[in-house]
Amino acid sequence: MGTVKMLAAVAAAATILGGGVTLAQAADTVLRAADTHPNGYPTVEAMKYMGEVLKEKTGGRIEVQVFDSHQLGEEKETIEQTKFGVIDLDRVSFAPMNNIVPETSVVCLPYVFSSVESFRKVMDGPVGEEVLKAFEPKGYIGLAVYDSGARSFYNSKRPIKTLEDMKGLKIRVQQSDLFLDMVKALGANPTPMAYGEVYSGLQTGLIDGAENNWPSYESSHHYEVAKYFSLDQHAQCPEVLMMSKISYDKLPAEDQQAVRDAAKESVKKMRELWDAQEEKSRKIVEESGVQINDVDKAPFQEAMAPIYDKYASTPELKALLQKIRDAQK
């Protein structure tokens, strides 16, 4: 985003929000939170739950106001606004943070986690804390890691069963170099696009497909215009709940800790809702007549060798990758 456009977005958000952390009389603090997902989505409900916990922990002194359904912009815009303190709390995918916080790229590497259980074990431990701490030098406070399920490809043209089936497909990707390179390595044509534009892109043929998890595929209604869902499960790139460092630094130490504790408590709630939503979403998709197929993952995994070389290239990132692997043993 250019400087002029970015400042305009910040100004627009400030008009909606009244500007960042609000300290009203009697130290009453309202934290504004952004999420692109619709009301009822697990991450949205988890942030609401965090707000309830935080309000209780602070005796009502701090509240969280959640703006869902990309009311405050798509993820790229909210990330920038959060850095400037216009938005206080932001739920975004790790993917658009890859170019900002390199450690997030390692977590998003294709096939780096063997299962959902392994992912949760790793991200709940020292590795997860290390990655969250890496946000702070960039102007954000990493508070919690939310699930995002296993991402798979879906499209309007054909089932994807082999690498050959990927060739020529125009696949929407998040605004992340890692995802761009991953799709290129698989032989398809990556097209960066905001999440909110994917349905119309599929409908008009601007793109042939995209990649995401069951709840996103279903709740966005992409299954209506992309009837082939191929279970390659290439990534479990998670979500992050982060806070503007500007907003965080305005709070006293006691309240900072309360924010961190409430965010951590919201993870359990998010996962409960996520597991239920995955099951519900898959059932809706299956009943709609979508063609679902398994994929032989081995050739896909082999094609990822250059991606690992590029995104775990420094000694620090290689060490982080090894920690992820060791934690799954």
**Uncertain regions spanning at least 5 consecutive residues:** 1-15, 22-27
> What is the CATH level 1 assignment of the largest domain?
Alpha Beta
What gap, in angstroms, lies between the N and C termini? Answer: 42 Å
Total separate domains: 2
Number of helical stretches of at least 4 residues: 14
GO molecular function, one term: carbohydrate binding
GO biological process, one term: transmembrane transport
InterPro entries: DctP_fam, TRAP_DctP, TRAP_DctP_sf
Signal peptide: 1-26
SSE layout and pairings?
Layout: H1 3-17, E1 22-24, E2 28-35, H2 42-57, E3 62-67, H3 75-83, E4 89-93, H4 102-107, H5 116-123, H6 126-133, E5 140-146, E6 151-155, E7 170-173, H7 177-185, E8 189-192, H8 198-204, E9 209-212, H9 214-219, E10 228-235, E11 239-244, H10 245-249, H11 253-287, E12 291-294, H12 297-302, H13 305-311, H14 315-327
Helix pairs in contact: 2-11
Structure explained in plain terms:
The chain is α/β, with parallel strands linked by helices. The chain folds into 2 domains: 3-98 and 114-147 and 238-279, Bacterial extracellular solute-binding protein, family 7 (D-Maltodextrin-Binding Protein, domain 2); 151-236 and 286-327, D-Maltodextrin-Binding Protein, domain 2, CATH 3.40.190.170. 46% of the residues lie in helices and 19% in strands. Strand 7 (170-173), helix 7 and strand 8 (189-192) form a beta-alpha-beta unit. The longest helix has 35 residues, at 253-287.
